[in-house]
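Figure caption, in words: inputs first, then the predicted bound structure.
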Amino acid sequence: MNNFIFENTTKTFFGKGCVREYLSCLSGHYGQNVMLAYGGGSIKKNGIYDEVMESLKKAGKNIIEFSGITANPTYAKVLEGARLARENKVELILGVGGGSVMDCCKAISMAAVYNGDIWADFWARPGIIEFEPLPLGVIVTVAGTGSEMNGGAVITNETLKIKTGRDYPKCNPKFTLMDPAYTYSVPKKQMVSGGFDILSHIMETYFSEPNEDNVSDDISEALMRGVIRDLRAAILNPQDYTARSNLMWESTMAENRIVKLGKRMDFECHQMEHQLGAYTNCNHGAGLAVLHPVYYRHIYQDGLSKFQKFAVNVWGISPEGKTQEELARAGVEALADFIKEIGLPTTLRELGVDESTDLKVIADSCNLALGSYKKMTHEEILEIFRECY
Ligand code: NZQ
Ligand code: ZN
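Bound structure (5,6-dihydroxy-NADP present):
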């Protein structure tokens, strides 16, 4: 194992009924003014909004609503939320939704208390934040990003055409409430996209050094087998509590920093998908599904031993009668078959990316990951995009 320091400051409440049980009491630790932030309204159809409102009213809170946070949240929406939070002297932000809502809320929690140019100072460059953002609590309604237990947020600056993410530990939610039954109403398309995002987070970590045996990779293999099993079960029966609860925790485990300990990490596919998203507003998990197999066909020879382990330990492929290369490649093709099986797009065309899209501009705007098995160039990224059509 490589050296590491670990801390995770988010207090996590998991299980059926946890919002009803804990939210009222939890919100009591913060001031009167609570900003309730959510997306396009799914929480009003599935009853989550009513349950949350009831708990906040029971705690005697003054509720300021902030709705309409879209998928791939924009910097403009962040600034709108920050203005509202300032005007109403908000003392707790409560984000109810998926990655988009949680990320937007994290960005608002910083923008609401920072006086300078928050994009230039924090989103446009790596660094640390030395002030306390507004306290944030989250209620997760769809499994996927794992944003509920880390300080990561991904924001799209529409003017600059940049979709970028940062992980500031001070942005870790103070608390997260995770009721797997809340995810029953997620449409299949979004469920498989979120599910693939979980798998992608684990693969982006697993396919990097060290290559020798290590605890992080061992946990990752178990998590990947779990995601594959639980997605299949949740597709068959969307109300399968075992599958939904496993998926919800697998999503958190993939991104709560535990499987990343001592790992270099790749995340080149995420870099590519984020820029594809900045230019086309495509769905995150679906974009990753298109990119991953093609990217892995480009890099597996540089990480042969890990790709062989992936084939055997994750997909159960027998090494018998196969060369090392055939075995490694079989794992990548098993991943591609699974993507088809669960109904995710396999080409940029299926993803809805218009043929007139300038893929070279997008490829040139991608960051080049430092920890991948094969150092990419912008030319090779363009090749990958073209092969994805
Ligand atoms: O907006 P509403 O009406 O609520 O509908 C949402 C939205 O349309 C719907 N939904 C959520 N819960 C539901 C539900 N529909 C019915 N029942 C429910 N219980 O699902 C749709 C998608 O929601 P969204 O939050 O956009 O999905 P996801 O969780 O996949 O988040 C994607 C965003 O997170 C970023 C992505 O880039 C993208 O912007 N990411 C954030 C990361 C992080 N913070 O660490 C890491 C990821 O790699 C990722 O980049
Ligand atoms: Zn992701």
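The mean pLDDT is 97.
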